[in-house]
Amino acid sequence: MDKTIVVMAAGLGSRYGGVKQIERLGPDGEILMEYAIYDAVNAGFNKIVLILKPEIYADVKELFGDRIEKSTGIKIDYAFQTMDRFTESRPEFKDRAKPFGTVHAVICAKDFIKTPFAVMNADDYYGAEAFRVMSGQLEKLHSAQGAAMVAYRLKNTVSPFGTVTRGVCMVDNGLLTGVRETYKIKVMPDGSIRVLTRGGSDVTLTARDIYDPESGSNRLGIYISPERLRYGLLEAATNSVRYTCYIVKEMFKVLGGLFTGSVTSDDVAGPVGTISIIGQAVRAGFEVVLRLGVLISINLGIMNILPIPALDGGRFLFMVIEAVRGKPIPPEKEGMIHMAGLVLLFSLMILLTVMDVRKLF
Description:
Radius of gyration: 26 Å
Order of helices and strands: EHEHEHEHEEEEEEEEHHHHH
Distance between the termini: 13 Å
Oligomer: single chain
Mean pLDDT: 79
Helix content: 40-55%
């Protein structure tokens, strides 16, 4: 199963006093995110997307990017998070300097994310176990709307040197119900953890274990169960049409990307790759299989109407040409053209099959 690790490195590092995402700290000049990506690759992530500010792209590529590509054989995709992307309807953000948060960063990288993915900060150290847990959770998700979070004991993330800000997880029966951004969290001399409030009164936070009876241990990961929405017949039909139109639009974008270079050989699959994807869908559940069936059906329909010889679109093109010329094309010439198209299609299928097999090893 392909998995993408998305690294957010567009923060300004204002509290640190510089761009700490590219601060050298290892014995050979390694930067912090290098250690995290190493752990991610060992945990099964095989695609890397770095979200950067355009002005640090050259430094990151020189200090880190080229080296990690060479050592892992994984091509790094670079996405830029800037305030002008996807904010056209909000002119008040034009003069904002600090980047938005995770959602905006992931949207800026959406063209490079083609697989199940995990998001991490470039200036945090997670530990190898966190990536192993997340990798395993991604393989257990039931649908494209599923998600998982790797959480830590609060007492292990506070500092004795001052207050910190943390996203405190609210949990019900082992499932995440919300994340509350909490400011001024401080560990006290007696070991308790308190939130220093403006009113002068402190709130004590109690950290508790999340026990998993199946493994007999405390869980590091928290699974988020997606909510299923129910619609009436008319609304369901309308949403189905919208979903189909969205898939068609994305298909044509992919076809256009084949000519512009934004879609590579890693983004397409042949018969072997399709079978592998179907197997993953079966393991994920019936809903995913149903969505994949819709995707494959639309894909085949679009391909069939393209003006390619040997396909229905090619035959329709000949009918248009005959209507314009006012006379039929000689059958033997049309047959030769369709035969050439059929040979090209089979050659493409063989090429894609070979590429699929190479991806397995």
